[in-house]
Amino acid sequence: MPETILSICNLTKNYGRIRAVNDLSLDVNKGEVYGILGPNGSGKTTTLSMILDVVNPTSGTFTWFGQPPSHHQRKRIGSILEQPLFYPYLSPLQNLKVLSLIKEVPDTPSEELLKMVGLYERRRSKFSTFSYGMRQRMALAASLLSNPDVLILDEPTNGLDPQGIAEVRDLIRMTASRGVTIILASHLLDEVQKTCTHVCVLDKGKRLFAGSVQEVLQETVLVEIAAHDMATLQHALVGSPMIRSMELKQDLLLVNLAENISGSDLNAALYRQGIVLSHLVQRKKTLENYFLELLKSSE
Question: Most exposed among 79, 112, 255, 277, judged by the fewest C-beta atoms under 10 Å?
Answer without folding.
Answer: 112
